[in-house]
Design a protein that fits this description.
Elements (H helix, E strand, L loop, with lengths): L5 E6 L2 H12 L3 E6 L4 E3 L4 E3 L2 H8 L4 E2 L7 H10 L3 E5 L6 H4 L6 E5 L11 H7 L4 E8 L9 E8 L6 H24 L38 H10 L6 E6 L5 E13 L9 E3 L5 E5 L2 E10 L5 E2 H7 L7 E2 L1
Helix pairs in contact: 1-2, 1-6, 5-7
Length: 323
């Protein structure tokens, strides 16, 4: 049997675990797993390990957790491991002295059809922009973010009912299988690559997917039509979640996260962004082409609930408004 390539895996969140598990179960020679240091999390601020570390420990895989990827002790460890190939899934950017070290290079799995949606949040932005399809790409890392030569790609349909969490979970599993197929091809030297400039179709170079911050998640009710508003909400659901301010007639403001909505195309006499409710069963917001019905929401400091559950405990009327 030919000698297997020595591989280091880099990753942190649950999305990366599916890829690491696929490589492990396929029998690849994973000599180390690199993930972020343990850190405080949750209300109790208890020290918590990353999902990738927890999986690696269960499988007795060596784990490295450098605070800095440029520290000499970490670089020295990498050199001693004498790896042939590195694999990165949902991890920070690697410095050149790290990604250029293996003789076969460093592969990244990205959750879009590159060059479209380069950046940290490709799943979210594909839904926010109303795409019907997205996909997964494996490529060799180079100096620029998500810019290297493409090895393999697979298309993924975005269903009308999908939110970011649903699409994430499907792509997580699909991505693990694509990555294993790519690593096998590179290990056996049976692959070709395509530079990303040859994949531009005239529009996708303008589609970026930068990191999402809280201030980007506020719903601007008057700036979008009904479909755009729904896409924005489902593209941020369940995390970090789109939010708005619910304002009482006296001016008291309550933060409200919105996770799920439906739409009704119907003419009305209200201004855009008007709150419409019977105080019992429905809580709607108007747009230029109809109504957006809130189905699932969360008041700041409370649990997630349906609209009817919310209205039972938080009576409001049409004097209230969204801001």
């Amino acid at each position: 049997m030919p000698k297997r390539d020595r591989i280091i895996f880099y990753g942190t969140p649950e999305f990366a675990v599916a890829s690491l598990m696929e490589l492990y179960e396929e029998g690849f020679n994973i000599v180390a797993v690199v993930t972020t240091p343990d850190k405080p999390a949750g209300r109790g601020q208890k020290i918590k390990a990353s999902p990738v570390k927890l999986f690696a420990r269960r499988k007795a895989l060596p784990v490295l957790q450098p605070a800095s990827l440029k520290e000499e002790s970490f670089l020295s460890q990498l050199k001693k491991l004498k790896v042939d190939l590195q694999v990165v899934v949902a991890y920070r950017m690697l410095p050149k002295e790290v990604w250029s070290m293996p003789k076969k290079g460093t592969i990244n799995l990205h959750a879009s059809l590159l060059p479209a949606y380069r950046g940290a949040s490709p799943i979210n932005y594909a839904i926010i922009h109303g795409e019907r399809y997205t996909g997964l790409t494996t490529f060799f890392i180079d100096e620029k973010m998500d810019n290297g030569a493409v090895i393999q790609q697979e298309k993924t349909q975005i269903h009308p009912e999908d939110n970011a969490g649903m699409l994430h979970d499907r792509m997580m599993l699909q991505g693990g299988k694509l990555l294993a197929k790519t690593v096998k091809a590179v290990e056996n030297n049976r692959f070709t690559t395509t530079v990303q400039k040859d994949l531009f179709n005239g529009t996708n170079e303008y589609k970026a997917a930068p990191k999402i911050y809280r201030e980007n998640c506020r719903i601007r009710w008057n700036n979008k039509n009904m479909t755009q508003l729904r896409n924005f909400i489902r593209g941020l659901s369940p995390y970090p979640a789109a939010h708005t301010w619910l304002v009482s007639p006296e001016g008291k403001r309550h933060m409200l996260k919105i996770f799920e909505v439906s739409t009704i195309t119907q003419k009305h006499h209200y201004q855009n962004g008007q709150l419409v409710t019977d105080g019992k069963k429905y809580l709607d917001i108007t747009s230029g082409d109809g109504y957006i019905q809130i189905m699932e929401l969360q008041l700041s400091g409370k649990k997630k609930m349906t609209t009817q559950e919310f209205l039972r405990g938080f009576p409001i009327d049409e004097r209230w408004k969204f801001d």
